[in-house]
Amino acid sequence: MLGRASAAMTLDQCGRLFGDRSDEVADAMDAARAASAAAGVSP
């Protein structure tokens, strides 16, 4: 994720940017993933 070794490292480094909005961020990321999957875009 973002060039880091793991998702945990990304969250450790960037998680503080979102404060108590982590659920909102996770929902937005899930919606974006679902939209790209529906459009046939692969990671």
Written overview of the protein:
This protein is mainly α and 43 residues long. The protein has one domain. It is built from two helices and no strands. The chain has helices at residues 7-14, 22-38. The chain is flat, with a radius of gyration of 12 Å.
Order of helices and strands: HH
Q: What would the average pLDDT be, to the nearest integer?
A: 80
Helical/strand content category: mainly alpha
**How much of the residues is beta strand, in percent?**
under 5%
The coarse silhouette is flat
> Using DSSP, what is the number of strands?
0
The total count of helices amounts to: 2
Outline the biggest β-sheet: none
Structurally, the number of domains stands at 1
Report helical residue fraction: 55-70%
Q: C-alpha Rg, in Å?
A: 12 Å
How far apart, in Å, are the first and last alpha carbons?
A: 11 Å
Low-confidence stretches: none
